[in-house]
Amino acid sequence: xxxxxxxxxxxxxxxxxxxxxxxxxxxxxxxxxxxxxxxxxxxxxxxxxxxxxxxxxxxxxxxxxxxxxxxxxxxxxxxxxxxxxxxxxxxxxxxxxxxxxxxxxxxxxxxxxxxxxxxxxxxxxxxxxxxxxxxxxxxxxxxxxxxxxxxxxxxxxxxxxxxxxxxxxxxxxxxxxxxxxxxxxxxxxxxxxx
Length: 194
Fold this sequence. Notes:
mainly alpha
């Protein structure tokens, strides 16, 4: 007769996400996971697979938490440009916050640590970036159609510029003790939308 799990896999996955987010993939050992999650190594492997598979599942969980929020923010009816500005300013504020400095962005951290040599992680990073760029592009197209954005602006190029800015803001926010760096960069980028 099979034993039932004595832990909540969903809660354990969330806890693993938090540990990987704080420490990174390479700096988190299986022993660290066992201690942090409070379950045995065999239970981790039986439920989630290898450490790498657990990390990828944690990335998927992060995307499930973050991506719908951005889409909801940028797809509200009415003027679109204020929503874009709010998103950019929110990213900058999060990056400059104490938690942002401590953890950074899980996707940005993965892009720097794993994406260059890990195709599965790189795919997830690209998908996450697409989930940022696409709603930004849609909002900017709407803004242009509504007369908020000048006709001579390229919504796709602006969305890509904002994506790159947002990722850069996450890196600089994590490493810099001066929050004005990310705020000033965000405001300069937003000035390009005028």
